[in-house]
Amino acid sequence: MSDQEQTYEGGCTCRAVRYRMVSRPLFVHCCHCTWCQRETGASFALNAMIEADRVELLAGEPEMVITPSNSGKGQKIARCPTCRVALWSNYAGAGDRFRFVRVGTLDEPSRLPPDVHIFTASKQPWVVIPEGVPAFEIFYKREEIWPAESLARRQAVIGS
After folding, report:
1. Fewest CB within 10 angstroms: 28, 56, 85, 104, which?
2. Is the pTM of this model over 0.85?
3. Domain count of the chain?
4. Could you tell me the residue range of the domain that residue 9 belongs to?
């Protein structure tokens, strides 16, 4: 099955907002930073980074909520206006060209396990990272671990 033939559907708890990712994401981050822990109320955030134009709304319209971020540039979080579930984020560094879809909002979240664990220096000590999955105390160099196809897709969006 080609990248373009893979789709992933998801939405909020009350089902007022539904979306479809029309291809595999560029990369799936499991972030253990304290900001993500606070924002999610959990031990980490699991985000599928994908081009914004590859996320189609099927129902409803999320509300964009601006929240602080560790970078100081803030982030926009797309939330259901009814049940308030966070569906994806747009970080200032990536702008509106990319979405960081919350994997837990997918109908089948098990289809997108993490490609990398980041900010493990602040992970909860009882979280065990599986063997063979790249993990970094802070961040990583994209060119060293992303597949060539994902790097090319990213470059096509941001230009030179």
Report:
1. 56
2. yes
3. 1
4. 3-154
pLDDT at 68: 74
CB 52 within 8 A of CB 86: no
What pLDDT digit, counting tens, does each position of 38-92 carry?
888 999 999 999 999 999 999 999 999 988 777 777 789 999 999 999 999 998 7
CATH of the domain at 149: 3.90.1590.10
